[in-house]
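Workshop exercise sheet. Pairs work together: one partner reads the sequence aloud, the other fills in the structure field after running the prediction. Swap roles for the next sheet.
Pair: D.N. / O.F.
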Amino acid sequence: MNNLVDNNKNSLDIEFFQILQDRLSKEFQIASVITDVNGFPITKPSNFTEFCGDHTRKTELGFKKCMLCDSYGGTKAMLLKKPIVYKCHAGLIDFASPILMGDKLIGCFLCGQVLSEKPDKEKFTNISKEFGIDSDVYLDAVDKIKILPYEEIEYIANFVYKISSKISDFTYYQDVGMASSKNLKKSTEEFNLFLENIEKTSSSIDSDFKCTVKNFFLRISDTLFKKFKVDDDKISSINNQINSISYETSKIDTKLKETKENFETMTTSLFTNKK
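Structure field:
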């Protein structure tokens, strides 16, 4: 499969975003998958819970309800062009975070399958009966679901949105090459500035959790810059090529103007001699 998926003349680096998704899921113990603008998965699901993957989604009714919730979250986030946090039909917390390249929508993170508080066992027992799942097995799977404070879920959702869009901008400018060298350098600088400012955001979030988020994204940025190595020499070389092409183009324009003037002079002379 081609690592670049074209979407409205933009590209999403599937290989890198799969790495980002896998690491995100492992670091924060959340489920995650990325879809295209039409809602079709373009990455392999990461860290789906036993509750969702092995039980709820394995039933016909549960699967239909899960698909409706995924569609709701992804569609709303992409329409609003910002992340949203919502409860699924079974009471778990999910979030959808759109991936933008500039102002163009190119995909969406669907993450979650977590709880924000201790589960209501009676409620989940009723859900198991609705889906025809053994209650004891279902409740055992519920006990394995990660519990995260709601504020932390929102925090992760916002940073997934910001970092994924900045990565998209970075990889886009790297791929289009020479004509966007200044934008590429600017995108690199903005990416580094974003990482430096993580700890200054949202005073209500625990500082240790902020540090965990920052360290995670620093590791992701290391992977990004190893894959798309950009340095001043490369930027300088690209700019020199641009200047060289501009100079050659200018010379051609000058020659064309001279040829046109010579032709007009010659034509005027011919008509004058005939008279």
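Discussion prompt: The longest strand covers residues 104-114. What would you look at next?
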